[in-house]
Every structure is written in C-alpha cells, then in structure tokens.
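Note to self: the last two entries modelled the partners one at a time, which told us nothing about the interface. This time every component goes in together.
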Amino acid sequence: MRILFLTHSFNSLTQRLYVELTGRGHEVSIEFDIADSVAEEAVALFRPDLIVAPYLRRAIPESIWRKHVCLVVHPGIVGDRGPSALDWAIQEGEGEWGVTVLQANGEMDAGDIWAAETFPMRLAKKGSLYRNEVTTAATRAVLAAVGRYADYRSGTFRPRPLDCANPGARGRLRPLMRQEDRRIDWQCDSTEQVLRKLHAADGFPGVCDELFGVPCHLFDAHVEHRLRGAPGALLGRRDGAVLRATVDGAVWLGHVKRADRDDALKLPAALAFADETKDLPESAVPLWREDEDDWSPLRYHEANGVGYLHVDFYNGAMGTAQCQHLLEAYEFARSRPTKVIVLLGGADFWSNGIHLNLIEAADSAADESWRNINAIDDVARAVIETGSQLTVAALRGNAGAGGAFLALAADEVWAREAVILNPHYKNMGNLYGSEYWTYLLPKRVGMERARAIVQNRLPLGAAEAVREGVVDACLSGDVSAFTAQVVTRAEALAAAPDLAQRLEDKRARRERDEAAKPLAAYREEELAHMRRNFYGFDPSYHVARCHFVRRTPHSWTPRHLAVHRELDWGEQPPGRPKTVTHPLGGLPRSGGGTCKAAVKGVTP
Ligand code: COA
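The predicted structure of the combined assembly is written out below.
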C-alpha cells in the first residue's frame, strides 16, 4: 500500500513504524505537520491509500480526513483522550496502559477505533515508556489496523465507534497537564510520588521547581536507597546529579533547565549550578557493583568469565568527561582476567554519540566538539584494539550517529529486535563523522553499501541491520528477556573450546588491518573533515546543533523522507526512496534568532 505519514517529527516511534511498514513492502512517504496547506499538498502529490499519524500535536485538517482514511496513534487506552495521556497515566500510577489507533474525525482522539493494545506499566521515565512499551504496542496496533484496511474497503471490517466500544470504562477525556498539576511538595510527597511527578514530565516539559533559590525545570530522576536527610535538603552530588531528600528517602536529579536565564539548555544539574554544587559532598560509588541499587551511569560486574560494562548516560549522549570515565571503566574491564567483555548500553539508548547540549553550552562550541570527538574516538580505539578478550556490543536500546559506529568497534554486535539504528551523521548539518566509521562500516558491509548507508540517512531496524551485515544478531524479547539472552550467549562464547583460536585470529586480523592502513590514518582523515565541520567556513553543523538542542520545530520535510516531493517521483518504481541530499544538509528546522549564537567560538 501507499502510506503517507503525517507527523510532527521523524521520532523514534515514527522511525520504528517506517521500518516495519517498508519492511513489509509498503511504500511510505513522510510529511512533517507544518501547516494544513503543506499536508494537503503532500496528500495531493502522493495520493496515498492510507494516512497514518504516528506523532501529531495538532488535528488533521477536515479537508484531508473527510476524503482519506487517517489513522491516528494515541498513546492511551481506549476512551482516553487529550494531549497528556502518558503523563497522567504515570503520575496517577495506572497499573496498565495502552495505545489506541483511531480514525481521525472532527473531534480530537474521539474517532472510530481500528486497533488497541495494552501493556503493564513500569515506574519509569515517560521517554522510556514511550520508546519501549508504547512503541511496541503502537507497532502491533498500527500493523493490525493496516492489515484491516482491505477488509474496510470491501466492507467486511467496520471500526468500532468510541462510545459503543467503551461504555463506562477507565479511559476518559483529560486536560493538558499543567505545571501546577506537576508541582512537588518536598515536605509532604513520598519518594514514589516525587518520582512519578518527575518521570511523568521527562524529557519534556520537566517539573518546574527551585534549586538554590533559582527557578528551574527538573529532569532525569533516580531513586537513592541509602542516603537520607531533611525533606527538600540537598545532600550530595554524583556524576553531575544532585541528591535531594524527600520525606521518606531521596532522589538523584540528573538534569535541570534553569528558568532564570534566556536560552538556558537542559544540562547536568552540577553543571547548570556549578558554583552552588561545588561544596556538596561527592558521593561516589564503586564501578564494580553487583546490584543495581546505587544509581550511577557506569557499572561493572562479572560472572562466568564475562565482564559486563553497563553504560547508561542520559539520552545516550556522551560528553568529553563521560567518554573519559567510560574509557577508564573500559580499561579496567580490559585489565580483568575475563574472556568476553559485554558493553551494555542503557535500556533506552545504547549511545547517541557526542553530547550536543554540552557542546552548545561550552564557551567555544568548536573546541568542545573537537575535545568530545577525540574523547569518543579514544573509547572506540580502545575497543578496536582489545586483543585479550572478545568484545560484544549489546544494544538494548537505539543507537544513533557516532553511537551507532561506536557499537561497531566491538567484535560482535547483538541488537534487540525492536532497536532502531541510525548509522549516519549527515542529519547533523552534514557532519562527516568519526569514531573510525570509515574503517568499521566498510569492513562489515563493503565500501559501496557503507557509502549508501551513510548517504541514505534512513533508520535501520535490527533485522534489516543483520541482513545488511551491520549487526551480527537480532534477538527477540523485551529488555529483560534480551539481557538474559545476552548473558547466555556471552557465557557460551567465554566457554567455547575455540575461544583461544578466535582471539588469536582476531589479533592477527587487527595486525593485518593495521599494516594495510593504521587506525591513526583513518582517524586523521576523519578528523580532517570534522575540523572543517567544526572550524570551517560552512556553519551548517553549528546551526543544525543549535536547532536540535532547542527542539526548534521543523520548517520543511527533508527530501529523503518526503519521497512524494521528488521531481521524478511518479516515475520511480516502488521501494525505498533514492537519496537526495539537501544542499544545506542537516535537519530542516525553522530559523530562529537564538541560533545566530550557534557559531560562537568558531574560529574560521
Ligand atoms: N546529544 C545530546 N542530546 C541528545 C543527543 C546527543 N547526541 N542525541 C539525542 N539527544 C537527546 C534529544 O535532544 C532528546 O532530548 P529531550 O530529553 O530534551 O527530549 C532526547 O535525547 C531524545 O532524542 P530524540 O531525538 O527525541 O530521540 P529519537 O529517538 O526520536 O531520535 C536520534 C534519535 C539519534 C535519531 C536523534 O536523537 C538524533 O539525531 N540525535 C543526534 C545524534 C547526533 O547527531 N550525534 C552527534 C554526532 S556523533
């Protein structure tokens, strides 16, 4: 079928649906929801069988839904309506939640129901639930709804009207959640209530509060199991987070956005309040921890010849200092008498590469970009050069840009089947990229495919990534089932009788590769391009980053997504869109005065 996505952005759910539908042979084109007239034009150009709206913030215009079946994905149970569906479900402690696929009509979220799925809730950040449970349920529901379209056309399937489907059930119309609904009372709220409020507001809009007497929005909460203090008091700092006491415990606040400064960014709390936090006691935890109770982004443990390094940085972004800490942790893992090292990313992201917010906040964005790319390259080199153990990158969550290539530095890459990879950099202002990608990707897929993958700028599902040779294994199940399989497979690798031979072959291969072209040469070439991206005449990377970190709304849909806007679109055979690189590269965001500052620190 020909399916048009009308969506606010090409976010993780939209990418997953794109991968699933194109993988089933559907022809999918995408238009960002910018204005009614733009959406109408897209429909006229593409002439879709079906319109799917995976992530919309406004209603579909009547001119479209009157003439076409438009299926809207709503992250709520049947009958739930309103713009803060997940926020209410998390904050109010729903035990079960769901996703409903509705047909757009004149009333928001009130159309006929084509499919619905439910899932048990976790006490987790909104973004984590969205990227895991919601995305899985939405994928099932959209595939079911798309599968019903032919029956709908032939009259054998009729979607259920909302009222009949849901007499007196839990789902109902809820208003937009306001900051006063989210307010934390540090003198009264229990740790669980505080966590629910913070999780319901993560990563947008955050909970409006105060730290050190300064108004700010709080994000990225983690429970503390040991330390206690007077309710509301700040007790310590760890890995950029600050610890705040509740009436019955304490929570780590990882990130904040100050409200007293124009153009403030979401930053680690200890950086946003650098002066105020420096006298708080540092509450470090050892890297090697058997249980997960003590929060810290890095954790190492061992079992049966396998060393597991957990790396869970907020949003998968890895700043210079974080890369340095990761390198230290990795060197420790490498020094252990294990047979296999498994690099486990977070449950939501394996890695998204260099930390664009920290770069944006630095005095010189160009200098910080340079430091950050070198620091992440050092990590990649250490993994590539590991001769003493087999290395595995275990992708529980998505990986993008440099983060996707960092995974390829390992000998084996195992991905959860729901994982989406974006192994390309160009969306960030035509960034060339480093992390030894020019060595790692062609080694796996050949030069021609490597070029196509980085040029196409499209997401790859785990199964497709295996077919392409980018990834070695695609394992089914949710995060915990995947992790259990990783443990079984890693222990089998460590116990395999041919392990010594495998390690010897690996060392010999690396020596041959080094003789053919040293790693340093790959790095030098990549960094020569990156130096131009960071310091050169063309500011595209700085502009794209500025818009990305400020979440500037898109002002047009990139041509590689909006297939219907190809000049020769009607003449192309069905299938994947051919690549058209916009002359400016980067994500198509609206211009904004604030981003004039993007080029600060660039020395041409
Ligand atoms: N640095 C800082 N923050 C990052 C980041 C990075 N490299 N990558 C993602 N994030 C943040 C986003 O700003 C967003 O923040 P929020 O909490 O304020 O919402 C959050 O992570 C989730 O990102 P989002 O884009 O909404 O997730 P997605 O799953 O829809 O898309 C990517 C995933 C990887 C396609 C997209 O995040 C991306 O393009 N990231 C930039 C990758 C990059 O260019 N890295 C630098 C070159 S190595």
